[in-house]
Amino acid sequence: MTTTRLTGKTARFTGRTALVTGAGSGIGRGIALAFGAEGANVVVAGRRREPLDETVALIEAGGGKALAVSADVSKAVDAHALVRAAVDRYGSLDVAVNNAGVFRGGQPLADLTEEDWRTQLDINVTGVFLALQAEIRHMRAQPSGGAIVNVASTFGVHTSSPGAAAYAASKAAVTVLSKGAAVDHIREGVRINVVSPGPTDTPMSLRPGETPAERAERAKAGLPLGRISATAEVAAAVLYLASDDAGSVVGTDLVVDSGATA
């Protein structure tokens, strides 16, 4: 693919359609903005419409194109409708980033409610499974295939933390599910990988009652890099795996964690 220039960056995704779930805030919004800056038609998805509209406005302010679609990916009908909306608007689905996820916990596993356990499984695991099915079924039928990046976490196969056992289990499942799907579908032209962020500049990385300044001091002392990751740094890893530059990268789990699990 010929590389052009867009606002000082390589436009690796010009003419391609990228779907990002959980794109109303945090890492998901950062990923969506990065795709928009590199020329993609971006479909942003989530359960609440208002933050999605804000993400669309930010992409369009930078000269990009975007569509907001309200969807709950833990429901098969929503996952399939989301893919249809992307294809109906832009004609293809070339990249999908399954980022939607929730954290319910903070207390020992024995004290976690069944509702919180099921919520994390429904959204973090079943949501990725259903989104993958809908995305793969379309991508394998189009001549160009497609690339999928699932967002897991260093809490999972890499490490855990007190109060995060159920969340870690759900994210470990994302990693293992992704590797299996990658092997199942690479011969059909669908390339699947994982990004596992560690501490990142989002509210989720704040401890109860902690300020961003206090978090920065904690990271300075506790992380090898001396700081947490920016959402743009996680987005850069996602865009690499989704790009032609990673054409032979299949089923990998790329960790972005300031050296926390090194």
**Overall 3D form:** globular
- The oligomerization state is single chain
Extract low-pLDDT stretches: 1-8
| Gyration radius, in Å | 18 Å
Biggest sheet, open or closed, and with what strands and sense?
Answer: 7 strands, parallel
* Count of alpha and pi helical runs: 7
CATH class descriptor: Alpha Beta
CATH architecture classification: 3-Layer(aba) Sandwich
Strand order of the largest sheet: 5-4-3-6-7-8-9
> How big a fraction of the residues is strand?
15-25%
Count up the domains: 1
Q: Structural class given helices, strands, pairing?
A: alpha/beta
Mean pLDDT: 94
β-strand number = 9
Amino- and carboxy-terminal Cα gap: 35 Å
What is the name of the CATH superfamily?
NAD(P)-binding Rossmann-like Domain
Task: Give the CATH topology.
Answer: Rossmann fold
**Approximately how much helix is present in the residues?**
40-55%
How do the helices and strands follow one another from N- to C-terminus? EEEHEHEHEHEHEHHE
